[in-house]
Amino acid sequence: MDLQQDKQVYEIAHRLTYYECDDTGHPTMSMLLSMMTMVSDAHSIALGMDTATIQATGEAWVITEYDGRLSPEQPTFGDQVILGTRAVAYNRFFALREFWMDDANHTHRYLHLRATFVFMNLKKRRLMSIPPALITPFESPEEKRLPRLGRPGSITAEAPVSQQYRVRYFDIDVNHHVNNARYLDWLLDPLGGEFLRHHRPVKLVIKYEHEVQAGASVTSQYQLVDDNGLHSRHVIVVDGQDCATAELTWTPIK
């Protein structure tokens, strides 16, 4: 298996496990995002920046948005895949990464995402400038302006489909807020099993607006915005505040 591993680009091999897949045998969206985080962490560790090194600053990397596309053909439980990431560019407050998931021979790309990262002070819960020691090892170019990612559209329905959830202890990650991948479960679950078993996302835009803390009551709303039911908009609301928004394009599973 041909893997690229250098300062700017990093790939790892991964075999899909049963707990990463839904009852169709394909990886869930939340697990796909978790895999992207996994390869990003592996990249940092390979350059000498492990979790302990980053936490010693009292700060942490936080993802604020994703924008990307997925292939209608996805791997299944037990398949060997390649997870990859590239440190694209950065400026004082933002860093841009791209992610991908390929088959074991690099002949089919299942997923390609871009993500914006910020550096957050864990006590003050506010954005900080990125420490040079934690960004220059990636040898990505410094740019004043980074490319803008897509922004989800707003729900316009007066009474969108709505479902409530309670944030559990195990939804909280090491950064003391709901893990980014968990939002995808809340955002997509109201679509229901019948829809999710027979449709697959091919385009995704998600933006994280505000943190969700332990014990919060979360309302997930969605709206299908075309006559074919293949375009959906979603929002996570806590106490009247939009905490995450998403927009997806779907394709029927044949």
UniProtKB/TrEMBL annotation:
- Which Pfam family, any one, appears in the UniProt record? Acyl-ACP_TE
Q: Which residues form the Acyl-ACP thioesterase N-terminal hotdog domain?
A: 8-137
Single GO molecular function: fatty acyl-[ACP] hydrolase activity
Where, if anywhere, are coiled coils annotated? none
Q: Which InterPro entries match?
A: Acyl-ACP_TE_C, Acyl-ACP_thioesterase_NHD, FATA/B, HotDog_dom_sf
Superkingdom: Bacteria
Q: The Acyl-ACP thioesterase-like C-terminal domain covers which part of the protein?
A: 159-251
Keyword annotations of the record? Fatty acid biosynthesis, Fatty acid metabolism, Hydrolase, Lipid biosynthesis, Lipid metabolism, Transit peptide
User: Which protein family is named in the record?
Assistant: Belongs to the acyl-ACP thioesterase family.
Q: Specify the protein name.
A: Acyl-acp thioesterase
Give the species: Limosilactobacillus pontis DSM 8475
